[in-house]
Amino acid sequence: MRRPLGVLAAAVSLAAIATPVSVAEAAAASEAAAEAARCRVSVAKPRVSDTLKIQSSAARRGCSGSALLRIRIKRAVPGADPVVKSGATRNGRITLALPCEPGTYYAVATDYRGRTARSRAARLTCTPGSGTPTPTPTPTPTSPSPTSTPTTPPPANGTVSSAEENEVVRLTNAERAKGGCQPLKHDAQLNAAARGHSADMAAKNYFSHDSQDGRSFMDRIRAAGFTGGSGWAENIAAGQTSPASVVQAWMNSSGHRANIMNCKYTLIGVGAAKNSSGKIYWTQDFAAK
Prior knowledge:
It is a single chain. The protein is α+β, with helices and mostly antiparallel strands. Helices cover 31% and strands 27% of the residues. The chain has 7 helices and 13 strands. The chain has helices at residues 2-18, 23-38, 163-178, 188-204, 217-223, 243-251, 254-260; strands at 40-43, 47-48, 53-61, 69-75, 83-89, 93-99, 103-111, 116-118, 122-124, 185-186, 231-238, 267-274, 280-288. The longest helix is centred in the N-terminal third of the chain and has 17 residues, at 2-18.
């Protein structure tokens, strides 16, 4: 089979040498080369939209002719990275969206001519615009008020068990009402996750969304038994001495205010814990379900 192909190629080559190349043919070849140099495929880093969907877009730019453009959103995991969604178009631009699950994602785009682009990876937490670290409010150290440390687990009926935690929920819902959002319902499992994180920060004297054992807030929520849901977020604070002061601190921070005022969230858990020196650590966990 290789021999006939070689003969055919030689025949074409000889025909091309024997026939002079016209000015029009040369111009066409030059334009084709210029178009090939201009044509590019680009793809955007995945992000979370206001509707709590993972989104990424791909486009062909500077290309004169149409071509099939395909985009694949992949999730970075140990082993082979799975494609969580893919799509294709001949219109030159395509956007994919899929329900958000926390994780690290990237996108790959290619056209049938072999041009390929790959986005940077993004760690998404299923909050609008995520892909960047969740901000935390600056602690405001003041003299602590005589507030007792919550020690009892949340009751089975799903109500917040301590007066301080219950007041944070009430004040949070009062702020949401100003923006037309429905009140958040307390969830016992979110409360357990929030309280556990506050207690851990207080006992180990640190301040972070990530536990010192490496767990994220989603790891803690799942470990508390919470299943399902379509969006999650967490606010933390330390040093505020009352429910009113901590809710005000969150409302004064754009990132935390966005979590509180996100009308898509329907459930909340609040945890408060005091360290040995009397400093209070606060946690709010939100979920859409």
